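[stage:ingest] chain + small molecule (iron/sulfur cluster)
[stage:ingest] validated
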Amino acid sequence: MVEEIWMPQIDKELCTGCNDCIVTCPTDALELVSGTAVLTNPAACNYCAECETICPVEAIALPYQIVLGSDL
Ligand code: SF4
Ligand code: SF4
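[stage:predict] done
[stage:export] tokens:
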């Protein structure tokens, strides 16, 4: 059995190290490493997408997330 777990993908080329996602993450899954956000504690991530929402340069993507809303 294969269990697939989707984790936030952080584009190191885009990340400016602004720290916004790290202070926003409710589970402390992210840390700044050498000036770039890194998912250092993936087991803590609950896939809430707050990091993706807060990132000002769209460096974080949560692939395969299904968003339900009325403004599609
Ligand atoms: S998806 Fe949520 S829990 Fe996971 S790293 Fe981003 S802010 Fe933290
Ligand atoms: S919010 Fe975006 S630019 Fe800022 S540290 Fe996180 S990934 Fe990098």
